[in-house]
Amino acid sequence: MTLKRGLLVVFEGIDGSGKTTQTKLLFGRLKKRGFDVVLSKEPTDSKYGKKIQKLAQGERASVKPMDEYHLFINDRRIHVKNLIKPALKQKKIVILDRYYLSTIAYQGALGLDPEKIKAENESFAPIPDIVFLFNIHPRVGLRRIQKGRNEKPNLFEQEEYLTRVNQVFGSLKENYIVPVNGIEKIEDIHNTIVKVIDDIVDHYLITTEQYTHFGNRAEVV
After folding, report:
1. Helices (H), 80-172
2. Angle, to 10 degrees, between the axis of helix 159-171 and the axis of helix 100-108?
3. Long-range CB contacts (< 8 A, 24+ apart) of 204-213?
4. What residues does 131 pair with on adjacent strands?
5. CA dist., res. 192 & res. 202, Å (int)
6. What are the residues whose beta carbons fall under 8 Å from the beta carbon of 119, sequence distance 6 or more?
7. pTM (whole model) above 0.85
8. How does the average pLDDT of the chain come out, rounded?
9. Is 212 helix (H, G, I), strand (E, B) or coil?
């Protein structure tokens, strides 16, 4: 299955909202349909991403919000250069578990300017084609982390902080954002997402009739 151009699909929301589960389900669905799909997440495993992970496990209080922000920016620059832009150029579907809207919300909740964060990120990072923004009460998300994953919440996963993060997420009004009710059943959420994605993908799908063959090459008419 070939697309006229690459597509960038992003899943956002607070921790425990269910977005990671849905990224994997959508990835599997699109692979079965025969699309070339890339699944990735942020923070990545770059040297900056690893520093962010250490902050989450106990060192966050020792870092200023702006310094933390720069770690996310540097990590994203590598991600965009090495994976996101090349995959989109190759007309692949890129699915991301978190992107720069998370930075807007999580660092915005620390007092940084959301508009400035957005502007800096969009100066180098491709704007998503669609963002599925999961809405869930922080208490529910934290309960899922503790019981469902059997994990102790890290320093990015505190109820008061996540409440502020949710407020910033809720203030975002970009037309590519699709709200998702995170408390619905996994299958129902997946079906809703599939309907939206199928419409977008089918719009950019190159059909067999659009090809004219010249030897071993195929050119779009």
Report:
1. 85-89, 100-108, 114-122, 138-143, 159-171
2. 120
3. 204/3, 204/4, 204/5, 204/7, 205/1, 205/2, 205/3, 205/4, 206/2, 206/3, 206/4
4. 10, 177
5. 16
6. none
7. yes
8. 89
9. strand
Q: What pLDDT sits at residue 217?
A: 44
pLDDT in tens, 194-215: 999 999 999 999 875 554 443 4
Instruction: Write b or e for each residue in 10-23: b if 16 or more Cβ atoms lie within 10 A of its Cβ, otherwise e.
Output: bbbbbbbbbbbebb
Six token digits for residue 176 = 């590519």
- Segment (H or E) for 197: helix 186-204
48-86: burial string, b at 16+ Cβ within 10 Å, e else: bbebbeebeeeeeeebeeeebbebbbbbbebbbeeebbe
Does domain 2-220 fall into CATH 3.40.50.300? yes
Backbone angles phi, psi at 155, to 5 degrees: -75, -10
Q: Which two tokens stand for residue 36?
A: 């070339």
Token couple for 219: 């050119």
Percentage, residues of the chain above pLDDT 90: 74
The predicted pLDDT at position 148 comes to 62
| Residues in CB range of 193: below 8 A, 6 or more apart | 22, 25, 26, 132, 180
Neighbouring C-alpha atoms within 13 Å toward the C-beta of 144: 17
CB atoms within 10 A of CB 217: 8
Q: Domain-by-domain residue ranges, the chain?
A: 2-220
